Automatic annotation (TrEMBL):
Organism: Janthinobacterium kumbetense
Signal peptide: 1-20
Domain DJ-1/PfpI: 42-175
InterPro entries in the record: Class_I_gatase-like (IPR029062), DJ-1/PfpI (IPR002818), Prot/Nucl_acid_deglycase (IPR050325)
Protein name as it appears in the record: Type 1 glutamine amidotransferase domain-containing protein
Cross-referenced Pfam families: DJ-1_PfpI
Alphabetically ordered keywords of this record: Glutamine amidotransferase, Signal
Length: 278
């Protein structure tokens, strides 16, 4: 009986190790978002949108690699550093903030972040999935970053889980053949025709809604975004799926793509990502 128990323990440990994966988390280098009329909004990533999925991944035994386009330490959006984004749970807020501090992710000179160029050198095959959290920062650089576009196209070809949250899904535009030109047109207030060759064309997906963006407009300090992510993704050919009530959780899964609409969607998006990894 004891031998059977020991054998079962060994097999379980081996199975758990075999299931462990390295998940690539891609963040923005930007600490601001350029608005209309030359105004600038200080931003970064949202605490809960990054750390709730990261904690779930680590607790499940996976490893996490952090990257930004240039390999710079990312910036925490100070407005997200509150228990309100954790359902008012002060203990949960403190635990996730402590984990962020432990990782030293935002500390220049100590941050474990690597560049997307280094990710390519290591090889996209090393990573089992990719996660892009929100905050407004992805609207500044990730939406047109060529390195991220190459990564997404390879993950798409390999059918690997690709999870993006809140403003994060705007990064899917980087996979466009002419991402810089397309996003420049959007930022100029134009509605360009749906481009040919977008790997996510026709996918069902979500992102922070135009309705939610309009409701949160006051948080921009009087500024106005150059365009809303929902409109941008729809212009590229996405099938947008919105929640029934603003700010309620909404996660959409279509093939390898997992998208969450807003900060409240972070836990559910993490759960869907974990399911895909299994």
């Amino acid at each position: 009986m004891m031998k059977k128990l020991l054998l079962s323990s060994v097999l379980f440990a081996a199975f758990s190790t075999a299931q462990a994966a390295d998940v690539l988390v891609v963040l923005s280098d930007a600490n601001h978002l350029e608005l209309r009329d030359g105004k600038v909004f200080a931003t970064g990533f949202y605490l809960n949108e990054l750390m709730q999925p990261v904690k779930k991944l680590l607790d499940a035994g996976h490893t996490v690699t952090f990257a930004t386009p240039q390999g710079q330490a990312p910036t925490l959006d100070a407005s997200s550093d509150t228990a309100a984004y954790f359902g008012g749970d002060a203990a949960a807020h403190a635990a996730h903030k402590a984990l962020l501090d432990q990782l030293a992710l935002t500390v220049p000179g100590r941050s474990p972040v690597i560049s997307l160029k280094r990710v390519a050198q290591i090889g996209y095959g090393h990573y089992a999935a990719v996660l892009v959290p929100g905050g407004h920062a992805p609207m500044q650089d990730l939406l047109k970053d060529a390195g991220l576009g190459a990564l997404l196209r390879q993950f798409h070809a390999d059918g690997k889980p690709t999870a993006l949250l809140c403003h994060g899904p705007i990064a899917l535009l980087s996979a466009l053949p002419q991402a810089a030109q397309f996003t420049a047109a959007l930022e100029a207030g134009q509605t360009p025709p749906a481009p040919a060759g977008w790997i996510y064309g026709g996918y069902r997906m979500t992102v922070i809604s135009n309705q939610e963006e309009a409701a949160a407009q006051g948080a921009l300090g009087g500024g106005t975004m150059k365009f809303y992510p929902q409109s941008g993704l729809q212009a590229a050919g996405a099938q947008y799926v919105q929640n029934q009530a603003p700010w309620s959780s909404n996660v959409v899964v279509d093939r390898e793509l997992i998208t969450g609409q807003n900060p409240a969607s972070a836990p559910a998006l993490a759960d869907k990502l974990l399911q895909a990894l299994r």
